[in-house]
Predict the 3D structure of the following.
Amino acid sequence: MNYSIINFQKHGDERGMLIALETTKEVPFDIKRVYYMYDTIAGVRRGFHAHKKLQQILICTSGSCKIHLDNGKETAEVLLDKPYEGLYVTNDMWREMYDFTPDAVLMVLASEFYDESDYIRNYDEFIKYVNRKKD
Ligand code: T46
C-alpha cells in the first residue's frame, strides 16, 4: 500500500526534544499548507474521503489517534502516538481518522493548497475512480 511511516530525527538535549521538518529532507514534497485538528470530540470519526493529487504527512504531535487507510484493494490501520513519527500518505487513498485521545493534536503537512475539487467524498465514487485508473 502506498503509505509509509517516517521516523524524524530527534534533536534532544538536557532541555528536551525538538523535531525539525524541511522540504526535500524529511518531507518528500514542497509544503504548501499546514493544518491541525485538536479538541476532537470523543468517539468522532472524521475524514471519509480520498484525494486525487494531494500528498500529506500526518503527525500526532500530542496524544494519539488512529488512521484507517484504504486503496480500494487493501486496508490498513495505523496508530499515531509519537510526535517524532509521520504517516506519509499519497493520493488515491481513502482515509478515516478516529480514536482521538482528548489531548490529541493531529498536524498535517500538505503538498497542495486547499482545493475542494481534489476531494472524493463518496466511497463508491472512490472505488470507481481507482478502478478506472487501472484500465
Ligand atoms: C485530510 C484529513 C487528514 C479549510 O478551510 N482549509 C483546509 O486546509 C482544510 C484541511 C479544511 N478546511 C475547512 C473545510 C471544512 O469546512 O475545514 C473544515 C473541515 O475540513 P474537513 O471536513 O475536510 O476535515 P477532515 O478532518 O474530514 O479532513 C482533513 C482534510 O480536509 C483532509 O485533506 O486528508 O484531514
About this structure: Residues 33, 35, 46-47, 56, 58, 95, 97, 108, 114 surround dTDP-4-keto-6-deoxyglucose (CB under 6 Å). The chain has a mean pLDDT of 96.
